[in-house]
Write a structure and sequence with these properties.
Blueprint (H helix, E strand, L loop, with lengths): L1 H7 L5 H13 L11 H8 L5 E2 L2 E9 L2 E8 L1 H14 L2
Antiparallel strand pairs: 1-2, 2-3
Length: 90
């Protein structure tokens, strides 16, 4: 989902996400997760180890092999990435 978040935040192009999914599929690694209500996922994320001062922080790719710690990812951005991932990985 980090690639989806990065795409939603305009940090990587769609081609990055497509390539990552293609590579994962070729390696026979999972590209989907069991659908869950996005609001339930958001609530669970509030207990995530990378929450600091009530703000979510994600490790997001900037290009293949490189990531950044990105603070302040809000609920709307996270839910959009979840919806995108659900749609994209089908």
């Amino acid at each position: 989902m980090s690639a989806d978040d990065a795409f939603q935040l305009n940090r990587v192009p769609l081609s990055f996400v497509e390539r990552q999914f293609r590579l994962l599929r070729e390696l026979q690694l999972p590209t989907q997760f069991t659908p869950a209500a996005p609001d339930h996922l958001w609530a669970a994320m509030q207990h995530y180890k990378k929450v600091e001062h009530g703000q979510l922080r994600f490790i997001l790719p900037t290009r293949f092999g490189h990531v950044e710690l990105v603070p302040g990812i809000n609920q709307q951005q996270t839910l959009a990435a979840i919806e995108f991932a659900n749609h994209f990985s089908v």
